[in-house]
Amino acid sequence: MDLSAGILAGTTDSMYDVVVAVLWGITAFFLFMLGLIIVNKAWRELREGFIARRRKILEEVLFRYVMQTGQIETVLPSGNDRRDWPVIEEIFFDLLRVVRGNVSERAREAFERLGIVDHYHRQLKSRRWWLRAEAAEKLGLIASEKSTDELVKHMSDPMPEVQVRAAQALGSIGTTKSLRPLVMALKDAGRWSAIRVAGMLISAGDDAVDVLLEEFDHLPEHAKISATDICGRIRSLRATPLLRQLLSDPSPDLRARAANALGMLGDPTASELLESSLKDSAWAVRAMAAKALGRLKESGSIEALAKALTDSQWWVRANAAEALKNKGPAGQDALLSMLDSDDPYAAQQSVQMIQESGVLDAFVGMLVSTTAGDQTRALKVMTKIVKLRRVDLLTEVARDHPDRAVRQRLTVLLGLPAAP
Known about the structure:
Elements: H1 2-66, H2 72-75, H3 85-96, H4 102-114, H5 116-123, H6 129-142, H7 148-153, H8 160-173, H9 176-185, H10 194-204, H11 206-215, H12 221-234, H13 240-246, H14 252-265, H15 271-277, H16 283-295, H17 302-308, H18 314-326, H19 329-337, H20 344-357, H21 359-366, H22 372-387, H23 392-400, H24 404-414
C-alpha cells in the first residue's frame, strides 16, 4: 500500500515537472518572438528614418545632377557610401517614372560610375534565385547596356522567374543587341510563351521592329506568325513593305496575320491589296482582310465589302458587315441596300449588323417623325426586315417602347393582335 502510494506520488511529481518545463518553454518562446518583433520593428524604423533623412539631403543634389553635365562623384555630399545606394535608386526610379530622355542617360551614368550596376552583376551569380531575380529586375530599371551579356546568360537560368525578369530587362534596355535574344526566343515555343515575349518586344517599339525585320527570314513559321502580330501591335510603318509582301506568302496563316497587321497600321494605301485578299482561297485570309478594311479611314472599299457579305463563310460575312458599320453613313447605306440582296446570307447578315449598330433604333424613332419622308423610309426598312423574318427585336420594341404611337405602328406592321 505504502509502496503504491509512493510510486503514484513520484509519478505525479514527474508529470508536474514536465508540465512546468513545457510552460516555461512556451513562455520563453513567446518572449523570444516578442523580442524579435520589437527588435525588427525598431530596426525598420531606424532604417526608414535614415532613408528619409538621407533622401532629404540627396534629392536636391540628384535633381541638380541630372540637369547638369558633371560627374556624379562631384555633386554627392561627403560621407556618401554604399548605405546611400538604396536611397539613390529610389530617387532615380521615382524620377524615371515621370521623366525620360536625358534624365535616363544621366541616371544610367550615375548607376554605372557608383558601381551599382557592377553590384547587381555580382548578385546575378548568387545561389539564391530570388536575389538573382531582384538583380535582373533592377538592371532592367537601370537599362544599362553594360548588363546585356549578363542578362542574356540568365535567360537560361534554372529558375523560370529569373528567366522572365532577365528577358524583361533586355526589353527595357531596348538596343539591337539586347532585343535580338528576345526575337530568337520566339523560335522556342516550348520554353517561352509567345504572348509574354511579344509583350516585351511591343514595349520596345520601333527598335524591336528593326530587329524583327532583320531576323524574319531566319525564323520558323510559328515565330514568323508571332513576329507579324508584333509588327501590327507596334503600329510601325517600317513593317509595311514586309506585311505587303506577306499577303502573297504560301502560308495562309501568314497571309491572314499580315492582313490583320496592315489594318492595325491604319495605312489607307493598303486598301487595294486588302481588297484583293477578299478573294483569297483561304477563308481566314478573307475574314482578316475584311476586318482590316474596317479599320481604314477610306470609303473606296465599301463596294468590295458589300460583295463580301455574300461569302460562303460566316466569319467573312460578319467581319465585312462590321467593317461596313465602321465606314460611317456610306457603309450603313450599303448595309441597308443589301436588305434587297438575292443572297439570303448577305441580307440576314445586314439585318444583324443594322440591329447591333443601333441603326434600327434610329429608324424606329423615325416612325413618328414629323417629316413624311423619314416615316416612309423607316417603314420601307421595317417592311424589308419583316419580309426577312427577323422580327424578334421589332416584336420586343412593339411591346415595350414608351411611345404609344410607335407601338401601334409596329403592331400593325408585324400583324400582331392589338394591345387592350
